[in-house]
Amino acid sequence: EPSTPLLRLQELKIAYGGIQAVKGIALELHAGETVCLIGANGAGKTTTLNAIAGVLPIAGGDIHYKGERINALPAHRRLRAGIALVPEGRGIFTRLTVEENLRMGAYTRKDAAAIEADLERVYTMLPRVKERLAQVAGTLSGGEQQMVAIGRALLSRPRLLLLDEPSMGLAPLIVEKIFEVVQSVAREGVTILLVEQNANLALEFAQRGYVMESGRITLTGSGSALLQDPKVRAAYLGEE
Ligand code: ATP
Predict the structure, then answer these.
(1) Domain ABC transporter spans what residues (predicted)?
(2) ipTM of the prediction
(3) pLDDT tens by residue, 19-59
(4) Ligand 1 centroid to 16 CA: how many Å?
(5) What is the per-residue pLDDT for 228?
(6) Measuring CA to CA, which residue among 133, 180, 153 is closest to residue 91?
(7) Residue 80: DSSP 8-state
(8) Quick one: pLDDT at residue 3?
(9) How many C-beta atoms surround the C-beta of residue 111 within 10 A?
(10) How far is the CA of 101 from the centre of ligand 1 (A)?
(11) How far apart are the C-alpha atoms of 178 and 200, rounded to whole Å?
(12) Ligand 1 centroid to 179 CA: how many Å?
């Protein structure tokens, strides 16, 4: 193995009460990679992402980040360490303005000048968002809200960006725009773990992918290999 992975999950188990949603999975991400986690509804993808972000406790196994075991590290400390989550449903503060939402992303930081500089970078990356800074976020379109959620995550200066179904409920043209933004974030060197039900989109975007079924990882490979895999095509790309 050439280097310590940025993130490593080993035998990870997550339960809701007595129900095991994630049943001992292994996953690795190296710095700078784009990786996706695909699978049907209820496979455990969101659960896995939330556990990495620390918003959900784990029932067994290990999470290592930059070589350190972070199993018990609270979510805000993980955020400060560079793990940012763009949650399912976006998690926008609907009654706050766009600018207030963005600034929330920097709540663990104290470097005021750098925060302003990062805001400017986000405005450059997301011009549509910049036009609406004073608007109440609840009145934005779904696509605009997704942009704000990504922008907010960037305000924490992430090393690892966890994206939960950014395409959900959005028209194809908007999805394309969102993925252009995510691609430019990746090009800046941010490591990305993307959860998607849209397997085609996810596998075209990501260098590598993992397939999750009923709480287990059943298949892994490069994005292009998984796109051509007959099992993946039959189960997730709507082919016989
Ligand atoms: P989706 O794309 O629908 O979000 P998913 O792959 O992300 O699917 P999860 O949301 O992680 O799947 O759900 C995995 C399993 O855990 C499912 O069986 C789900 O019903 C269960 N589950 C999720 N959240 C809870 C909860 N808060 N309480 C109890 N069970 C839950």
Answers:
(1) 7-239
(2) 0.91
(3) 999 999 999 999 999 999 999 989 999 999 999 999 999 99
(4) 9
(5) 94
(6) 153
(7) H
(8) 84
(9) 11
(10) 27
(11) 15
(12) 24
Burial class (CB in 10 A: 0-12, 13-18, 19+), 120: exposed
Which sign does the torsion angle of CA 149, 154, 156, 159 carry?
positive
CA dihedral 55, 4, 210, 199 (to 10 degrees): 80
Rounded to the nearest angstrom, the distance between the alpha carbon of 131 and the centre of ligand 1 is 36
Confidence of residue 176 (pLDDT cuts 50, 70, 90): very high
Nearest CA owner, ligand 1 atom 2: 41
Contact, 114 vs 105, CB < 8 A? no
Q: Which two tokens stand for residue 213?
A: 């079924």
Over residues 182-228, the pLDDT tens digits come to: 999 999 999 999 999 899 999 999 999 999 999 999 999 999 999 99
166: closest CA among 203, 204, 201? 201
What separation in Å is there between the alpha carbon of 237 and the centre of ligand 1? 21
Q: Is 68 left (phi over 0), alpha (psi -120 to 50) or beta?
A: beta
Atom 11 of ligand 1: nearest residue by CA position: 44
- pTM for this one? 0.94
Q: To test ligand 1's pocket by mutation, which of 16, 50, 214 has the most ligand atoms within 8 angstroms of CB?
A: 16
- Residues 160, 82 contacting (CB under 8 angstroms): yes
Instruction: Give the position, in ligand 1's atom list, of the atom nearest the Cα of 165.
Output: 2
Q: Ligand 1, residues 19, 52, 214, 217: which to mutate, most atoms within 8 A of Cβ?
A: 19
* Residue 239 CB burial class (10 angstroms; 0-12, 13-18, ≥19): exposed
